[in-house]
Write a structure and sequence with these properties.
Number of domains: 1
Number of helices: 4
Shape: globular
Mean pLDDT: 93
CATH superfamily: DsrEFH-like
CATH class: Alpha Beta
Helix content: 25-40%
Low-confidence stretches: none
Strand order of the largest sheet: 4-3-2-1-5
Length: 112
């Protein structure tokens, strides 16, 4: 099985459709997909923050099997606590965890 690590850095809500579409499509093709929100993109993951279209796109990716993670450094920079995250967020993973996942022999990166 292939693992796809989708890194989303400083993409606003309007630009979220593309990385989320790739994440959902790869998961639907039976790839193991991790979507890592870093930089300003972590703001999407705040409860009540995503608009209806973004929330639906996040749920589509999750329904297909993708897992979504928030960067702890980005959370701190954006004043976001773990309790404020959407319940759909699988966890908090920093740079080391992101790189470890991507360096696995079966992994590939996509960066947005």
């Amino acid at each position: 099985m292939v693992r796809l690590i989708v890194v989303v850095n400083d993409v606003d809500e309007k630009g979220a459709a593309v990385p989320l579409r790739y994440a959902a499509t790869a998961a639907a093709l039976d790839a193991e997909v991790e979507l890592h929100c870093v930089g300003a993109s972590v703001a999407w993951l705040r409860q009540g923050a995503p608009g209806p279209a973004l929330l639906q796109q996040l749920r589509d990716a999750l329904d297909a099997g993708a897992r979504i993670y928030a960067c702890p450094q980005a959370m701190a920079a954006n004043g976001l606590t773990p309790e404020a995250l959407l319940p759909e967020v699988a966890g908090i993973r920093g740079a080391a965890a992101l790189l470890a996942a991507g360096f696995a022999p079966d992994a590939r990166f996509m960066n947005f």
